[in-house]
Design a protein that fits this description.
By secondary structure, the protein is an alpha/beta fold. The chain is 34% helix and 20% strand. It starts with 11 loop residues before the first strand and ends with a strand.
């Protein structure tokens, strides 16, 4: 797969025009991330998902570590070259880990230029990893196809999970897969409570408008797709083992 020519750093590409709305969102997003102590140093980013036990988000990253390990083990079992697209890659930590799978090439995509700059700086020596700034819905990756598309802790930034899945299926090769992970999928009756919780959280943080960018999706919205739940934190087996991972992992296959 030939990617567009580099225009800023060795492994970051900027496509099209950055919309004013994206710039304003990024500014507030980075501010709230800082307030939450979620902005990593370069040294921390290189080691993610491992963080010191006294880090305020240590337990959260332990969950991400286990989910990344499950995904990498799953994709490694393919034992063939893979083209992977990580949508909403943020600072690129997962894209970097996925690029360690032998024969794999990974493209990290995000509208957040601040974190992409850090990703490009920290992971600049990885020849199997590239970053693109932009929104896939803008046409920046038209004519490109992938074996696997990953939404890791990112599908909640899109208003409709159903529309986004339908749209990204067209970027899959025959038999390709979409993986949604590190994501909480709600029962329909839970959504309104979850929305209120999000509003209260961002209001307490001083940025109530950020709740407008968080969408709460129902697992029922995936019923029209050929999908499998690869990890369900609520099932009997997970509860029996006492697992603390409370985020879902869903695979959707391209049947064409």
């Amino acid at each position: 797969m030939d990617l567009p020519d580099s225009s800023i750093l060795t492994n970051i590409r900027v496509q099209g025009h950055t919309r004013l709305g994206d710039i304003l969102f990024e500014k507030k997003y980075i501010t709230t991330r800082s307030l939450e102590n979620r902005i990593c140093t370069d040294e921390e980013l290189m080691k993610l998902p491992d963080l010191p036990a006294d880090h305020p988000h240590y337990e959260e990253w332990q969950i991400r570590k286990r989910s990344a390990r499950r995904l990498i083990r799953y994709l490694s079992a393919e034992r063939r070259p893979l083209e992977i697209l990580d949508i909403g890659c943020g600072n690129g930590w997962l894209a970097h880990r996925l690029a360690e799978i032998p024969g794999t090439r990974v493209t990290g995509l995000d509208i957040n230029f601040t974190e992409l700059q850090q990703a490009a700086r920290v992971f600049n020596d990885d020849p199997n990893l590239r970053f693109i700034q932009g929104d896939i819905r803008s046409g920046i990756l038209d004519e490109h196809q992938f074996d696997c598309i990953v939404f890791a802790d990112s599908i909640q930034y899109f208003p409709s999970i159903k529309k986004m899945v339908y749209f990204t299926l067209s970027f899959l090769k025959p038999g390709g897969e979409i993986h949604i992970l590190d994501t909480r999928l709600y029962k329909p009756a839970e959504i309104e409570t979850a929305k209120r919780r999000t509003v209260n959280y961002y209001t307490a943080l001083g940025y109530p408008e950020m709740a407008d960018f968080q969408y709460h999706h129902s697992s029922d919205d995936l019923r029209s797709f050929h999908h499998s739940v690869l990890y369900n934190p609520k099932n009997f087996f997970s509860r029996l083992l006492g697992r603390k991972d409370d985020l879902d992992w869903v695979r959707i296959k391209n049947q064409t």
